[in-house]
Fold these 2 entries.
Entry 1:
Amino acid sequence: MDEDNRAGAPRWFTLAALGALAWELIGCAMYLMQVSVDPAALPADQRQMWDATPVWMTGAYALAVWIGLVAAILLLMRRKLAEPLLLVSLIAVVVQFSGLLTVPALRNLVGSDMLFLPFLIVVVCGVIWHFARRARRSGWLH
């Protein structure tokens, strides 16, 4: 009997952890694309958003994706540290997107229809953290 079965982890655990890893990898790729773009090459509306985005939002974005990536790897390795790191990543995502509502220059540029994707990202990150929390409480992580 392999270690996964002895610990009682369901067979779908690895697939879910791989899904979390894929999500975090996509987030890291999006972050790298954002920070490597030449702002002068952006269309005027995107350039306005770029100029209005405070550095703390970009910092929160970096924390969210890189800590999330490490946490997803740890989740796949079935390590308990994945859960608190995923919570830190989730909090960083919330901090990052809070700027869309709290920074006046951004709030004036962002329509309510543009808030769906940030909301979806927060929900998915929350689901991944809850998955890790359940895994820890169920004894699937060590």
Note: Confidence is low (pLDDT under 50) at residues 1-6.
Entry 2:
Amino acid sequence: MKDIISNSLANSYSYENYRTRLKSLLAEGKSSGDDQSEDLLHYSELNETRMNRLDKTIRITPETEQFLSSLKTEYIWLVLSEGWCGDAAQLLPIMNKMAQISDKIDLQIAFRDENPELMTLFLTNGGKAIPKLIIVNKDTLEVVADWGPRPAEAVKLIVDYKAKFGIVDETVKTELQMWYLHDKGISTQNEIVVLLSE
């Protein structure tokens, strides 16, 4: 596993470089990832706007800030993502703001389709759900924990809808985006702090 982590880190991007790469792809009329379609391009464009907004508006709670400021161990937060992923667009700006608080956190983003071996190690119910945060000890490259693809309450929203209607459609995707809007990144911060506290 350490070799796969190491290879993926060599093939990963800082948050700024990830954003730059997505912008470059959009300028070419492309989304990230192996598949290209009008829908994925549309989602990528929406997510670009969403991330621009969240970069400006997301606030880290004083409790989270205090916890992150007191970290003793150095971590790499390696996140599997793609530009078309709505959850990633909501969550990466939060993770980036959290990482900026502490010099003990190095946030790196790896594209899912460019790192299939890593993705295979961190499937969710057998699927390639993203974003997936892999918390790695910087000194040993041991995986401390992993988290994702979304906060527990958002997972429940999707699971309940799918149980009721049998599909994940635009209606529930809109509900999910509204959930993120009202949550303001609090659940994500709290859940990641709990992981680091264990």
Note: Strands lie at 75-81, 105-111, 132-137, 143-147.
